[in-house]
Structures are given as C-alpha cells and as structure tokens.
Amino acid sequence: METLRNIKAKLKSLEDQNAYFEIQLKKLIQKLDNLEESRTKVNPAVFAFNEAAPKPEEEEDWKELYYEENEKKEKLENELDTTQQELEALKEMLKGRMPVNEDIESLKKDYEQKILENKELQSHIENLEAQVKSAISISVEYETLQKEVETLRNTASQFNELNSNYNNSLAEIQALQNTINELHTQLQQHTLTQGDHEALAQELEKLRSDAAETNNYRENLETKTAEIHLLQDQLASLQLQLSGQEDKDKQIQQLRNEVEILRSSALRFESLKNEVNNKVSEIESLREEITGLQSQLQSEKEKESQLTEMQAQVAHLRTGLMNFESLKSDYNAKLNEIQSLQNHINNLQNQLQAEKQKDGQLAALKGETDQLRSQLEDFNSLKSNYDGRLLEIEAMQNHIGDMQRQLEAASEKERALEIQLKKEIELKNQLSYNESILTSLKSENEGLKSQITEMALKNAEVEKQLMKMRELESRVNLFENEKSKMISELESMIEKTKSFNQ
Known about the structure:
Layout lengths: L1 H50 L7 H131 L4 H50 L4 H51 L5 H23 L4 H23 L4 H144 L1
Helix pairs in contact: 1-2, 1-7, 2-4, 2-5, 2-6, 2-7, 3-4, 3-6, 3-7, 4-5, 6-7
C-alpha cells in the first residue's frame, strides 16, 4: 500500500511538472512568434534602407535599433538556455518513470500469480467440502448403525437369557416327568369318583384347546427359526461386504436393508413375546384348575396319605409353572411340555373310562411312556439345535463387535476430517481476505493503468512539443545566422555611411 501511495505521489508530481512545462513551452512559442513578427518587421526596413540613399540624421536610429536587437538576442539566448535546462529536467523525469513502469509490471505478475494460487485453493476447498459432505453422510449412517448394533446386542442378551432359562427348564421338565410317573402309579392304585371324572373331562377339553394353540405356536417358532437362518445368511453376506472396502456406498445400502430385516425380526420377536405372555396367562388358568383338582383330591378321606403326596407333587408342579413364567420366549420347551401333558390327560381319560380294565390302563401307560420317550428324544434334538443356534448367536455377537470397531475407526477418521475442515475453513477465510486485498489492488492497478495511459499520452504530447522546440531551435539558429548577416551588412553600411559623410 505504501508503494502505491508513493507511485501516486510521483505520478501527481509528474503531472504538475508536465503542466508547468506545457505552460513554459507555450510561452516560448509565443516569444518565437513575436521574434518572427519582429523579423518580418525589420527586413522591409533593411531592404528599404538598401534601396534608398542613407541619410546622416538616421545614424542614431540605426544604433538604437542595433542595441535593441542585441538586447533581444541576449534575451532569446537566455530563454533558450532556460528551455534547454527545462528539457533536460524533463528528460530526467522521463528516465525516472522507467522504474515505475517496471514496478507496475512486477505488480501485474504478482497479481496473476495470486489469481492462480486463489484458483488452486478454491479447487482444493471444493474437494475438501465434498469430503466433508461424504464424512457427514458417513457419520449419520454410523449413528444409525450404532443404534442398530445396540438393538442387536439387546437381542443377543435376550438370547443368552433364553439359554439360561432353557437349561433351567430342562431340569424342571425332568422333575415334571417324575411327578407324572408318580401320578400314574397312584392312579393305578386308586380310583376316582364320578365328580372327579367330570372335572377331569372338563380340564382335558381345556388342555386339548391349549394343545391346538401350542401347535400354532410351534408353527410360529418354526418360522422364527427360518428367520434366524435368514439372519445368519445376512450376517455372512455382511462379513463378505465388510471385507472389501472399495464400494462403501453399496455396502452401506445393503447394511440398511439388513438392518430393516433385523428390525422386522425384532418386531416379530416382540409379537412372539406377547404371545408368550398370553400363554403364561393360560398356564395360570391351568394352575388354578390344578388347585381345584387338589381340593377335590383332599375331599377323599380314604386317600388322605395319597392326597398329601399329591399335594406335594402339585406344589412341585406349581413351582415349575412359576419358573415357566420366566420362560416367555422358550416356545419349544413349553410346547413339548404341553404336548406331554395333553397325552398324559388323554391317557388319564382313557383310564377313567375303563377303570375296571386295568390291563388296558397298563397298556395306555406303556404307550404314554413310549410317547414321553419319543418326546424326550425330540426335545434332545431341539436342545442340540438350540445349542447350535446359541453358538451362531455368539458368532453374530463377535461379528457385531468387529463392526463396532470398524465404526469406531470410521468415527476417528471423521474427527480427523473435521479438524482438517476447520483448518481449510481458516485458509478459506484468509483467502477471502487476500481476495479482498487483491480486488482493492486490482482497482488501484486499474487506476494506475489509466494514469499511465494518460501519462503516455502526455509524454507523446511532450515529445511532439520537443520536436517543435527542436524545429524552433533550428529556426532560431537560422534567425541568428540571418541576424549576424544583417548585423554585418548594417556594420558595412554604417562604415559606408561614415566614409560617405567624411
């Protein structure tokens, strides 16, 4: 800025000097015009003097004219010296303008270089903005994936709870089977009254309806296992997709689709949980019916000892049913248990209808034991499948942990990009400030250019005036030569007049 002010001051001083020189040149031109006019006035007088005969009384006039001409000549010489000095000063000023032009050229080069640097920084800023936008989209997707990972963790914890409940239910089912065997032995030893038969028939009808519902639940569980297999396939595809990190957008889209599937499975899981709650309420009703059966058994005076044992067994069954409340999502175990109870009640009904035919009851009991054994085998197979699924769930948890680590690495990368973005924003602000300075310099440069063009025009005019001055100098020299000739002629004429007077 200081250099520009200095240049402006120099240009202003040059303009003032040019104006001064123009005024001086105009004055010189006027003086030369006056000299030419005086010359034209003198020449006819000389010619008239040469043609006419000289007179003695005009000698003094010629002397005065001669002295006046000498004075005019001296004045003209002095004026020519001053004009020459002014011309030399003007030439020095013109020479001093050359470094100013060089400074302007260097400023132009610096300005062009700044423009190129500004363009490069602008392109770099655009690239960084694109990277920041992609990082923001990745962060949003990371948050959604993190939420989905939390849901998957919750489902995994629920699966772990199911595993523990499943192990507990195995022991309870074994205890229930033992109690059922004891009840079989007791029923073989004792007979029931007609009212007990009717109550048991009603309970059997209810249990049959419950068995139909449990079959529906079993079908739902089979669909649930199919969905778990689909989830396993989806996790395998996720693992394959995460191994290759080239097409991130496609992977994120696939992850979104898979997360939607997981959400739908979670909703189904909630619906199954509600069904389990309904089933638990039905088991409560069965519990109440069992308590009624217990009161009926207590009414038999002849079977007090057996009824006490039955009460202990029913209490044991009650504790088992209380444990079944915690097994809300373990459908397989409950279905097997209800089926075993249904078969047992059917056998009991057959035993009540044929009390006198003990042999048929024994055969029914044998069939029931065979059915229980087959159910136990099915239960063991289901347990093995459930253990395999638990292993698969653990693998899913490990895979989710790997995904979480990858997401944490992505978050760290995002933080680094945010830091870089802040630096680039600072650079952008600095660039905007530099651009404002460049625009001001550009406007000043344009003003300087206009001033330089004006100076160039003025210099051209000055050069023209210098050419005129040179022409005037040549004309003055010619005039001086003619004047010297005229003076010599006048002197010769004066001598002639003197000799003529003598």
